[in-house]
Fold each of these.
Amino acid sequence: MRRKRIAVKTRIKLRRRTRYIKRPWHQRISKAQPENNLRMKEEMSELTHSASVVISVCNEDKTIGQVLQELEKLPISQIVVVLNGCTDQSFQVARRSSKAMVIHYPDRIGHDVGRAAGTKLTNTDIVLYMDGDIVISASELMPFLIAVDQGVDVALNDISAWVPPFYRQDSVTRCKSFLNRVLNRDDLQANSLTAVPHALSRRAIQMVGVTSLIVPPKAQALAIMKGLKVACVHRVDVVNHNRVRARNIGLDNDVTQLIMGDHIEALSAVMEMTGTRLQLPNESRSQLAKRRNLI
């Protein structure tokens, strides 16, 4: 009996000493992926529609070779590599791929303009979009192709697991969430066409227009407003693997200003179609408080 009491006291002491350490938000990531990923090996070569890939590249000679190697494992008929402002060996490396159609712009035109230019050269039912600085395995890219093959028009990368809580979010993330909210798509959270990889159906490209792809948030807004099927289909971590450049360092960097400007243009397009209230209720602060408090 005495031994039992000692054992119980010992367990109580251990429990008191034990502290629950909450893992940081970026480590609390579920490994669960959409169902499409479960059949990846079986469906790697079973697309019913034709597919192509557009890659925007700017001085990526260290990674573009590996990126192309993974893409060549996919059931695609075209790979369009758009080099913009490259001063390294990216052209020579890209030319080694037998599937790659290489387009070279000597001056920097930007990734979004590059994607739009590359899209004009495609003729497939599905177009997958990537950047040349992040190597993503073919098995991680296949879900985007499968989703569009099965009826999705805009297949987004779900980066929600790597987005911090609201109080820690940057202005770009909040702009993404706000745009989706005014479009009545809170389910998309901060997911956007600004993040790769993503894929579009030929119908989406035709309905929103190739030139709209130059402004990804605007293209996404138009797709939703026109009733196209927009969904987050797979989860690829491009947040922690995004290449650090001089233009994307700091809170008020050039890339941040560009993306926020794109969202302003997208909101302007929504206003033209729905009115200046952006489909938000026209309520006074007291009315809003009553509705929130169910008074």
Note: The beta strands are 51-57, 78-84, 100-105, 126-131, 154-157, 198-201, 230-234.
Amino acid sequence: MNKQRLFEKIDNEVEAAKLLPAKEKEGALFMADVIKIWVKYEPNTDIGSLVREAHQNAIDKGWYEEPRSFPEMLALMHSELSEALEDHRDGRGLTEIYFDGNKPCGIPIELADVVIRIFDACGHLGIDLERAIRVKMGYNATRPRRHGGKVL
């Protein structure tokens, strides 16, 4: 199914959802919006585009109305990893996505938040993350097996 037909199908579902009771209608309309956002991302979207979009979204949501320091950005990245650890400690599955109302939760969502925080920081700081990843992966390919002799 092409994107245009998918969006038409979603629009039809939205019209049907408007007839539902208030509580059900809210959830159905929210999920239609989530699906529309998800569908717009092509599987081959480049990292630079995602960096720009994540940073622009943070700007649009007011997260840069006051200056942000680099240590603060790192702490926010780390906080998302800590949330993933908490989900693991609570017995959530590694691939489990669950919802708290309309908010998606779970280890995959927290790991996505880590990446989004990194994208946002790179967009703000002018870091070419895609280039850095390619340089580092190229270097890593040249390293010996289990380099550094570390156990963990």
Note: The first strand starts at residue 98 and ends at 100.
Amino acid sequence: MLDTSARLLRLLSLLQAHREWSGGDLAVRLGVTTRTVRRDVDRLRALGYPVHSSTGTSGGYQLGAGAELPPLLLDDEEAVAVAVGLQSAAHGGVTGIEESSVRALAKLEQVLPHRLRRRVGALTAYTVSMTYGHHGPAADPRTITELAHACRDHERLRFEYRTHQGTASRRVVEPHRLVRTHRRWYLVGWDTDREDWRTYRADRITLRPPHGPRFTPRTPPADDLAAWVSEGVSTRAYPEQATVLLRLPVEEAAARVSPSTGTLEEVDAHTCLLRTGAHSTDVMVVHLLMLGVDFEVREPAALVDSLARARDRLARAVDASTPAPALGPVTGAGAGATGAGRAGETGTGRPEPGFPGIDREESARSDGRAG
């Protein structure tokens, strides 16, 4: 059984979850009786921690808000989760987040016990990120925070929005949710002047307070807002849109098609539909061929015409080409460079999701139109 001091710290850690615990549940977690739990709660109150209790069948204990907050208490799994989260945040498309993440991780290591500090320190020192560096404008963390607060408080926002073409306009928006991809943050909201749901890239927003008044939330444009924004970024933002049947299970297709490239819909156990967009059907042909799977165009007819032109061009190139003799198999020290570790491939030998060298989120217009 834990001694009193250790048990009080463990009790604080459980109460920090901001949920209500029954006396019986706490007793089981701590390995004591419910009577001991009541005494420990009284000790915490005497130390200034606002622990609220309620009676009845649904009663229990909950840590309330107050000026004196408990210390940061993390178990092994929580400490590792925070460290991984801080490392990942450095590539989240927010201005200055890398430096802030490093500072926060350093502070975390200082307050952790020696055993946990060694684990987190090893994770930090011996982990190398293989993610691509963020290119292009990044969102300001203060803007992200203010947008989130406005969504929570149902408060109208006033801001200046810069489109992909560089033109700026003033917007009055009822914010609903923030949607985050690997490199971009999007605000989904109701544009009061255009009377429609719109998507705004956070890095193109310049807030113009004062904000308000408060509003009654509307029914969102979709239950799955992440999929709705994905369709807007990958499809609706482009002048040419297509629906293509991929002869591949949707789970395997998801490993090749990123949310910013297109949306997937399962047809059966062996095929799925891809909805995507591009600036031209000729560009779309290149994208589809790079997936490396058999497919069938459902629409538009112009995409079939582009495929036929590409087929004829490739046939002429094959007929006119004289290939060099094939090289023999690579042996020795150089052989390792041709395996699963080739640049741009996953451990399965397949390319990473998306189309190499093409920033779909950057090229998409995403200029405040729906999706």
Note: Residues 301-320 form the longest helix (20 residues).
